[in-house]
Amino acid sequence: MKKIINTQNAPAPIGPYNQAVLSGNTLYTSGQIAINPKNGELVTNCIEDETKQVMENLKTVLTEAGMTFEHVVKTSIFVKNMNDFTKINTVYGSYFNADTAPARETVEVGNLPKFVNVEISMIAIK
């Protein structure tokens, strides 16, 4: 069985998907971009703030599912410009304990939804 996870503390989906799906003890999040859920505006003034908003959106989805970043086992990071990797990685890394950080891949792509600079999805296990 799957359980749909949605919270008003993260941006509402902009298509036919949910913020996350819980299947057994495994949570699969949809990719999050830097939409501020309080006002619906994109945070794009700098890559650090954009990445922080993405991580905060993911944090609220994890919380809604009763999980934390410590439960995350895999992340996928999609970036518009690999030259932003170091800045993204610094913000991303602040949400994890280096000794227990998840596996991940980082992929440069041509475009992302709403032409943002970074999108991140996660898999977490309780």
UniProtKB/TrEMBL annotation:
InterPro entries, alphabetized: RidA, RutC-like_sf, YjgF/YER057c/UK114
SUPFAM superfamilies: YjgF-like
An annotated Gene Ontology molecular function: hydrolase activity
Alphabetic keyword roster: Hydrolase
Family in the record: Belongs to the RutC family.
Name of the protein in question: Rid family detoxifying hydrolase
Species: Lutibacter aestuarii
